[in-house]
Structures
1.
Amino acid sequence: MNAATSTPQGVRVTVRGLRRSFDGQPVLKGLNFEVARGEVFVVMGPSGSGKSVLLKHIIGLETPDDGEILIEGESIQSPGVMDKYRMAMVFQSGALFNSLTVGENVGLYLSEHQLKSSGEIARIVKEKLEIVGLKGQEDRNPSDLSGGMKKRVAIARALVIEPQLILYDEPTSELDPVIAVTIGEEILKLNRRIRVTSIVVSHDRDLAFGIADRIALLNDGQILAVGAPDEVKHHPHPRIQEFLTAAFNHNLERTST
Amino acid sequence: MFQNIGELVVLFWRTLQALPQTWRQRRKVYDQLFEIGNASLLMACILSLFIGGVIALQTGPLLAERGLATLIGSVVGNSMCKELAPVMMSILIAGRIGSAMAAEIGSMRVYQEIDALRTMNINPVHYLVLPRLVAISCALPVLVIFSIQVGWMGGALVSVFNDRIGISFPAFFNNLRDTVDLVKIINGLFKSLVFAVVIGIVSCHQGLQTIGGPRGIGRSVTKAVVNSIVLILILDYFVTRFLMYFD
């Protein structure tokens, strides 16, 4: 997570036998998968299936009970590995600092690590906000922004790090369909532009099938399927089909009356 | 309880190790200093005026009945600078500033802002705890200096204008000057510094430990204030005992 000096290049991420329990309740039950360099990898699954916990393990916010996470073949538990690769996370809530303006939020990484002069930071902040379609919003407070704008500010803040790996936690939750599509397009554009490896956790089927190179379906702490969107869509596992085809039954009211 | 004490000691040690970073965090230290001064100075002065006054009111008539009214300056002077100003100001600051610290850091924890800091490789101890601890450690002794002086004034006003005491301002302050020296004032300031560290560390620790939603934040705030006050009152005895060696 150190300073950016050159054009980012995605990294390969390997998750091996990842297990984690909270208060004796297993949440992750031995996950195994690999994400290729520059890939958009979507982890789908119902609420409470362990998606966010998985992301927190990949970025080093949680420590696994067993198993390991490798970046370019190096365990993130090894000293110096987390500093060697540039990683960023876009949180579900945006996790913007309410005491700072939008501009200060976006430039926080550079200002706190004193990587650039204040003039240079202002230029970079302006540039990153422009990329996410928030030109000229530097002086606004996060509390004045809509949910979609907050998410885009969070993406701009992640971009400042010039990451090799971006993790998105439910990037379209609580957003209307139009904004959700915009955010999905932003994720895709970034991936194409800087070839960053993107791991997206979501239960939004439209987003997953719209942007993913590959999809993993997580259920009850286990991966049921990993593959290209079409492969996952036609996977025979009943739980996957239930998740992917869940819809309202319009005849329910008529039947009950 | 022992786990909590251990965590407090570890957090204090980490903050001490981060002290060389203070200059880099100076803007946040100024912000916190302003917050503490702005929120507490007026309240501290009002509180101290009445504390000084009530000591004079309680002890003055008793001393006057025995012909010792002039000793009231000594009683108010010593009790304010050695005990009441540091302890009462610390309790006030624990309530006003400690609660705000726990609430702010607690809400940052609940809304994942602290996780966001960690993903940016920004140490929460450097960014959140250090500026608050430095600011409160500077501000509380200064508030205590104000409190001591205003408390003396309160005691003097009651001593002069209360019919059952009725001594003059010069008599009050001459007696005060005879018994209160710089060492006693420094003793009080040292106490307030210890209490400031307790409030800062306990409040930040509670904030960082917050789990759950708004209810969790409320719980952290209550714990921060109650634990700070309990620790202040317990430590007050031991610090007083320690400082007696220098009297």
2.
Amino acid sequence: MILSIRLLFIAVLQVVITSIITYWLVADEYIELSEQSLETLESIMIEQKQQQLKNYTSIAISAVEHLYKPSDQDNTVVKSLVADIFDSMLYSGDDGYFFVYDGKGVSIAHPKEPFRIGKNFWELENAKGEKTIQILLENAKAGGGFYRYPWLKPSLQKVSEKMGYSVYLANWDWMVGTGVYLDDVNSQLSILQDEIDQHINKTKQIILLVAISSIFIIFLFGLIVNLNQKKRTDLKISELGQKIINLQEEERRYFSRELHDGIVQILVSIKYSLEATSIFLKKAEQTKPAPLEHAETNLVTAIQEIRRISHHLHPRILDELGLSAAMDSLSKEFSQRTGVFVNVTKPAVRKLLPDHINTTLYRVVQESLNNIEKHANASYVAIHLSIQNNWLTLLVKDDGSGFDTSPEADTSGFGIGLRNLAERVEYHSGKFDISSSKKGTTIRAEIPTASFVNYFNQSNIEAA
Amino acid sequence: MNSDELDVKKITVMLVDDHPMVQGGLRACLSFYEDIKIVGSTTEGKEALNKALELKPDVILMDISMPFMNGIDATEIITEQLDDTKVLIFSMHDSAEFVTSSIQAGASGYILKDTTSEEVYYAIKAVSNGKTHFSSSIAKVLVESPVRAGNEKLTTREQVILSYIAQGNSSKEIARKLNISFRTVEAHRRNIKAKLNIDSLAELVRYAVNHGLVES
């Protein structure tokens, strides 16, 4: 049975559905996982930053400790010295600096925005609606704390999210703070996010590729199965065709024999009975009646007619004398009918071939001669039968006008067809070939000796 | 003429035809000719061999198409063994190949079955006198394709002997197997070599193998 389109469609559909489900599950899982790890990563990075801020701050504080601790509270010289020190402590390029405010929100030190110095920012409100300085002061008074707020990033001159850490210098009612901008964390995270997206895309592509190649393989498999199936079906049809042809030849032979060896013989016996009657009348000196004369003549006509039919169905000479004699007879008839000279060469031995090979080769000669008569316009034909190197070769050559042997050419005019003959010869493990040019046509049929070896002995000695 | 004189002159004839009705019709016609006596009949080629050896008729009227062994092969074996028996082929086949094959096999004449009984009679008389006789249409065919010496095909008997030779049998063994004389086998051997244009035994064997007559 041919693999149906429907079956292929179902297989393809399954691949498509499986691919979609796989893609969906994998992508979903991947996204969830990546979100989790991104969050973890973010918190780790933030923690690191916080630790850094604490470290920087404690380093900064310890740098001014020798001035801050022992001095009395209102030494403005010392205070301005300390403020200068904080101003000068920069790290991480432009963005790492310390700021100082007093308990009322007045800016004391701010290296990146010196215009703030001396001004009160108690009421400063950020984009989140929170009072930035108040919160930083609260954190500081509470023993140090972190606060995220939007603030101008010096290196970019743009407002960006900043994480600030502030501590309290209680003796002076000062709040000292520093901070990091989180946009680099975010950009690192977004690079990671991009990488994850790329991975997901890659997975998507792989699944798509697998799906497409699966579909391709299914189609290829289907194609191969169908081609194989078709080949086998063709072979079966060809075998069946040969069986039908063999049966047909058998039938023809049977009827030919029945007519020739049955009915004709009966008619012959009737003819001799009629003749006996004639002789009897003659001896009795009576005149032969006209109807008797008619009957004798008509009987001879009937005999000849039936013999003609019998010969047309299957030449008895093929069975009685073999292929060589049948070819001789056929070519003689052909020459007489067409005036084309035919030269036949054949081996000295005969009756070598079993009936079916005999008949097949006889039909090759017959069909070739028919084609020559109808189409070739030839003046000379050579029929050559020989056995050499384990092959029996039959050649029918003419010097006619030739014809197009390409498969596309219209050869429908050539009787039962050369293609049919080719199949018949190939059925006996043989080879068949036609070559044609404007100088003439050669038809070649070959049968391996193995197909008929010892046949003569079996039919003429072992049967005896 | 008295009956004793007639008996001496009578030609003994044997009929070989697979159709009893044809034999019956022929008997009816030939019964009017007093110098012919039908001494026996058979319907197939192989039985004809035994009966011919037994009856040794002057003339055998032999059909060609018969079951088991055709008339031509039977003729070859009969004429090989009986020098004085003439075989007259009596057949429906009118192709030259049948005629030439019959002549090769040793037949003295060939007449067609749709001929007149008168011709059958004359043919029997002619061959019994050591002459040949062919129906007029057959004679025409013979003129068109004469049997040429040197270009002849092997007869069935010769092929059988070639096959035995190729299987390693000596002439003596072949003579015993075919129940014929050593000299006859040797004669066949010479004929085979002449027809195939071959001198040596090795070449004979190779020829038989090449042509699929025997297995290699």
